[in-house]
Amino acid sequence: MATAADDDPASLVELINEFVDVCKRYLLIGDDDQSSTPQTTKFSDDMFEKIEEITDLTMNSSNGKECLSAFLRNPHIVDTFCSLLQMARSSVCAYLISDTTSSGSSKEKHYQVKVFFHLTTLIRLIWYLSNFSVDFRQRFHERNGTKYLLSYLQDASLVKYCIETETIELDLNEPSLTYLADIFGSSIIQLELNSFLISILGTLHNISKSDLTQTDLNELTETLLAFSSLVNSLGRARTCLIMAYMTLALTLTDREIDELKDINEIVAKLMQLIERASTAIAEGGKALKRSRIELESAGKFEQVCMVGYEDLDMEFDLVELISSLYHIAVNDKIKHFIYFDCDAKVYIERIVRHGNGVEKE
């Protein structure tokens, strides 16, 4: 009997293409074109959630896997993503840190929120697809997608703005903006600026596991070190710091890891997440969420466990958490801290003892 998943690849392609069309119109238009913005754009987080839902269903069918894989290998979609990131870079960043943030007209604020919303969701989609396809993220990198993402993190003013401002809020009660209230289900749009940085960092972490040249790795490492230093100086956005350190663990030497500020604090937070996951696994694993990722370019997919914590802005892949600790532990001093002070032995043994039973279920 045919399932709904048989038709899902076409639906997924249609949704992504619609999203790309929206981004083209709202990321690349100039100020002179703002009068055209009230055209009926229906893309929002609801559509992104639909993309996630359809993609998950698609991956449960062999035909769906082949179709999605072929679609993600299409250079057109990767080239479009990269072009949007490149062309949005100068205009969006300049606009976000301009005085119009607080004193501009309603039209300008409307434009700002719309542009930033679509840019954030574009990068979120790239991150999501980079989990699904090793080939996609390699092609994205080869077409300079990594450089475009790094350029956002290299803009200290933008990073500081995102961390210190935290949210952008737009009142939709004004006559020219009321049509958006139905789309967002609220009279107020509130955009979490941390999600912009988190989506970039998540994508970069996936790309760091690709086949990168030493020059590429050096640029990635230098950018993340400067970013981490800025985040530390601001004393906020700890989720961003955790994600940056998880990637740096893959690129730094043991001595360089030891020099990371607050590395023990970050390790302790990673261990809290692993403790929570190990407890859930010991209790049968029912409370754990799962996410499908591609483990290798040959097309092997796994449903990995995801775990979060109250004061963090996202959930983490348990495999990535353990892998990060493994790389951080090349430093003997931190290895001792992980194993004895953070009780890693207890949590890893718990996962090993109960994990196979949970996976069989």
The percent range for helix content is 55-70%
Taken in chain order, the helices and strands follow as HHHHHHHHHEHEHHHHHEEEHHH
Shape: globular
List low-pLDDT spans.
1-7, 29-44
Largest sheet at a glance? 3 strands, antiparallel
Number of helices: 18
What is the first-to-last residue Cα distance?
A: 25 Å
Widest β-sheet, arrangement of strands:
3-4-5
- Gyration radius from CA atoms, angstroms: 21 Å
Q: Report the count of strand segments.
A: 5
Mean pLDDT: 75
- The helix/strand class is mainly alpha
How much of the residues is beta strand, in percent?
A: 5-15%
Characterise the protein shown here.
The strands form two sheets. The chain has a three-stranded antiparallel sheet with strand order 3-4-5. It has helices at 8-28, 45-58, 62-73, 75-96, 100-103, 106-132, 134-142, 145-153, 156-165, 179-184, 194-207, 214-234, 238-248, 254-258, 263-282, 318-328, 332-341, 344-360; strands at 167-171, 188-192, 289-296, 300-308, 315-317. 67% of the residues lie in helices and 8% in strands. The protein is built from 18 helices and five strands. Strand 3 (289-296) and strand 4 form a beta hairpin. With 361 residues, it is mainly alpha-helical. Residues 1-7 and 29-44 have low confidence and may be disordered.
